[in-house]
Amino acid sequence: MPFAKIEVRRSRPPSEVQALIEAVYQAQRVALKVPENDRQIRYIEHKEEHFAVPPGKSENYTFVEILLFPGRSLEAKRQLYQEIVSRFGEMGIAADDVFIILNEPPLENWGIRGGQPASEVNLGFNLNV
Question: Which residues form a coiled coil (predicted)?
Answer without folding.
Answer: none
